[in-house]
Amino acid sequence: MGNSIYAIRNYRPTDFDRYVQLIIEAEKLEPTGRCTSSPVLRENLYRPNYSPEQDLFLVETAGHMVGYIEVAPELVTGRVILKCFIHPDHRRKGLATKLFVCAALRARELGVKVAQVNIAQDNVIAESMLSKLGFRFVRRFLQLRQNIAEVSGQGIDQSAWQCRNLQRGEEDKLMQIQNRSFVGTWGYNTNTVEEIIYYTNLTDRSPEDVILACDGDKIIGYCWTEITCETATGERKGRIFMLGVDPHYRGRGVGKGVLLTGLSYLKSKGLQVAELTVDSENQAACALYRSVGFQVRTSSLWYEKALG
Fold it and tell me: Is 138 among the domain residues?
């Protein structure tokens, strides 16, 4: 392998099957919980505001695909989020650096000034590489987990706020409550109606996965749940993808009520475990999740680099 010749190029539609195999291999070697089914990966490649032919770079050698870097644009926040993987047999050959150069050029084409990367807290190889590339640590996010069977329904029925499922045609209302809830929050990228329609119509997704908290006809909070892919051990997990409350209604039990309703919804789907990710500096959110039984399992680290 020392004499291998590597080619780095943009993704092409004919690469899809080999790309899927690379993701499957990456998940076996370094499990992240990412779904590796072909339909889900295809949907992800053609999500709104993303072009795999421009935003995905592949490494191949001797007909084998051995690495990639994905450039996910978030133009509202002025950043790109990078995801990179090099097969262990092909590391220490400068490929990650070359991939980053491709990603940085693409970011500049988009007019973006910042690149960010999220890695597991124990990924010392990625941490070392990011340091060499000039990235700096900026944020820690906590990964929380809870046994849904232990969730008590206490507080749901007593809530002063009505909770119901999102209906088709209400995507603009969800967009509005999301953007009101997260304005000024670190890393939040403003959502569009197009994106919400896309994400609520993915494989194994539905508008009813989103629980709305209402004060009369006014939507004042939401809990967006997900059912994740089955793991290698056969465990089916639920996820709290997002939870937000209108700033004018905070401190009045809305968040806890809609969270408990969301967990009850996941429980009704036969799931045993719920997981979520939260900014370690968001003390109010951390306190809310701990109050209903979530516990810290691990954490992930965000790194950032300004693009000159």
Answer: no
Number of domains into which the chain is organized: 2
> Is residue 95's pLDDT more than 70?
yes
- Starting at the earlier edge strand, list the strands of the sheet with 273-279: 7-10, 56-61, 64-74, 79-86, 114-120, 295-306, 136-147, 273-279, 237-245, 218-227, 210-215, 162-165
Do 154 and 290 reside in the same domain of the chain? yes
Could you tell me if residue 243 is left (phi over 0), alpha (psi between -120 and 50 degrees) or otherwise beta?
Answer: beta
Same domain flag for 157 and 81: no
Q: What is the pLDDT of residues 131-163, one digit of tens each?
A: 999 999 999 999 999 998 877 655 444 456 899
**Vertex 87 angle, CA 301 and 143, to 5°:** 25
> What residues make up the domain containing 250?
144-299
Give per-residue pLDDT as tens, 18-52: 999 999 999 999 888 888 999 999 999 999 999 99
Q: Does 214 share its domain with 79?
A: no
Q: Is residue 45 part of a domain?
A: yes
Find the helix packing angle between 16-29 and 38-45, rounded to 10°: 110
Question: With contact defined as beta carbons under 8 Å apart, do 136 and 283 qualify?
Answer: no
Rounded CA-CA distance 290/144 in Å is 9
Tokens 């051995």 -> residue: 66
Entry pTM: 0.91
